[in-house]
């Protein structure tokens, strides 16, 4: 007797290697998977911060990579509120006390993104919602984040399938031309946006699912990873959700990560990930303090020897796989 519909991962035609970086963009779900990758010393990052709707992600990428005047476009997106400067193109992590610092953060993101995509094997794009907010006085200007500004400043509208496909097909082709090695993987975030209501959230996700399906059917370098389906059709029990009953729990994210590895990793890649995870866990381990909170010279020397051994192990690992992350102390 079966009590759940279980997702069975199938190997993709795309095989990823931890020797090459991966760029993940979009909602907070992208950050969760990037964190799992980094825990294995895989160079994975989300250089644009949290972005939710496909039109904002497309606009941010287009401004950073393909605008003839990126600095001017960004400067025009900056506004002041609450004593700080923000950008309509990005989340609050690019906010600053003055415009110059905002611009510096923007240019840093641009440089980081270009460098990563030049080496990256894959770009993962996670769409969270098809609901978009536009400036009320510029109804064609979609914003990535409302930055807690009054609702009267915005017009809310849901993007359509054809609009998403049209914009992303054009952007994907430009990305492929500039970065020929790049493969694009679309995902739809399993996180529900219940402020839209149950029906509103379902309709929003349906638009994203159909848009990604159409993009993958048109472009042979585009793929789809079913994170949404794994959570909503397999992990249907609330024990796999965080306390807000919306975001997946750590166990839920781990289950998605296991299916991700089964989909995109071969045996060699799995061995690299396992070794990277062991090295980082050993490096992050700290001995428990003694009852007297004092550490003897012998214990300190032993700990220093242990950490040197880990550094040597990592150096040998990185010599074989130059693309893996360096050791860091958190």
What sort of overall outline do the alpha carbons produce when their principal axes are compared?
A: globular
Fraction of residues in H or I helices:
40-55%
Structural class: alpha/beta
Strand content: 5-15%
Q: Report the CATH superfamily of the largest domain.
A: SGNH hydrolase
Number of helices, counting only DSSP H or I runs of 4 residues or more: 10
The helix-strand sequence is EHEHHEEHEEEEHEHEHHHH
Number of domains: 2
Structural account:
The chain is an alpha/beta fold. It folds into 2 domains: 22-265, 3-Layer(aba) Sandwich (Rossmann fold); 267-330. It contains 10 helices and 10 strands. It has helices at 28-38, 54-65, 70-77, 99-119, 161-178, 197-218, 227-234, 250-264, 267-284, 297-320, and strands at 22-26, 44-45, 78-81, 84-87, 122-127, 131-135, 138-143, 154-158, 183-188, 222-224. The chain has a 5-stranded parallel sheet with strand order 2-1-5-9-10, with helices on both faces. β3 and β4 (84-87) form a beta hairpin. The chain is globular and about 70 Å long. It starts with 21 loop residues before the first strand and ends in a 10-residue tail after the last helix. The model has no long low-confidence stretch (mean pLDDT 91).
